[in-house]
Amino acid sequence: MKNLKIYCVTNKKLDFVSKSNYFFGWVGKEPAPKDYLTCNTQDNIFVKEKFYSELTFHYWYWKNQLKNENDTDWIGFCQKRRFWINKNSVNINLNYQNINEHLLNEVDKSWENSNSILCDPINISGAKKIKLIKRGWRNIISNPNLLFGKDRETINVHFDMHHGYGNLNKAISLLDEKDRKEFKKYVNTFNIYHPHIMFIAKPEIIEKWFSTLFPWLERCEEIFGFKNLTGYETKRIYAYLAERYLSFWFKKYSKYLFIPFNLYHTLGSTHFFEFPKPHSGLSLTNIVLNGSIDSTHFGSIMGRTSEYTIQTEEIVNNFRDNMGTEKWVNAFHPMIVNDNLIIIPAKSTMYFKTYFSLPYNKTYVFSTGEEIILDKNKEYTAALYFRATAADILKYLNEGSKKTLEQDNFKLFDGELTSTNQVPLIIKEN
Description:
The chain has about 425 residues and is an alpha+beta fold. Helices cover about 35% and strands about 20% of the residues. It has a seven-stranded mixed sheet, with helices on one face. Strands 12, 13, 14, 15, 16, 17 and 18 form a seven-stranded antiparallel sheet that branches. A two-stranded antiparallel sheet has the order 5-11.
């Protein structure tokens, strides 16, 4: 079997895949873990890391490591949460316990007549009209049909909406003439591309790809520079450009196949509180459970082999009562209120996301109280729930926060919010 080498680019130590045969490329600011390849030595562009992202390692590999590979090898690249997987592992929910057995670790016979592998494409069409109007109004002016057909949401339109209007066209104008017209037609025709700068290829193809990509991006630096690249959408514009160009280039210059990849959410941890930041006022402990029991808010879950015990919000109330309401409020409430105030400007939209895993185990003082037994054979759904009382919040705001609210004419939210979506709760045996 021909040799397969996968380089996973990361800025976090990935202990949960330590048993794999992956090589790890380090782009983090902190010292690299033992045995991780660093890209701040020899010929490198490490100073551009926050703009080039994983391409920082790709460049180092191209200049310093690629020449040492055998011509018969297959060389692949992936990211810290996006991994190449076996073809039978597409629908597997990857976690820190099972991921190593599902990672791609050998060349498949179906690759015999190919010299490159791309990950399965994603479709970028289907944006809601309100989002098109808000983000793509310039595109709509030039092409009103965008509002009436999702198939017209091309790669170029999507890039305009999310990474700066006209930026992709500016970059394309700097391509070599052999690709310029074709790539422009490609991005204005198709609404799918192969994401995350993930590919597997023979060394000769990789050499041609990097020899084309990096000189182009260097020319793009003359337009975009670095000083004005701020925020999520534009800071890493060079990586976003490479991502779109990759989909075109490999299809034109190589014999390619598609194979699946999988997204690993939890990065080895058993649970997260990131809604939108640790200990936020939008708390994951506020979950509405729906099923064959009354709707209940719960704070923790303890896993068993055949059943799951849910501890309800009552345990928090019990602890508060035992501690004394006044002491509870004075100890915790001011800190919670001031540290987790979320300001949303008028006529704006703010998106939050979170990851959490079940079963969720807690071992601190809230581990006793009212319980509900879930039947693994029944169906349940869960929604996020948020409650705020403006009077209580205002009472414990510090003077700085009060001044901000007054000067900018912000209003405190008063009431209850429940997410409109209902997420299925799936219970599995250990």
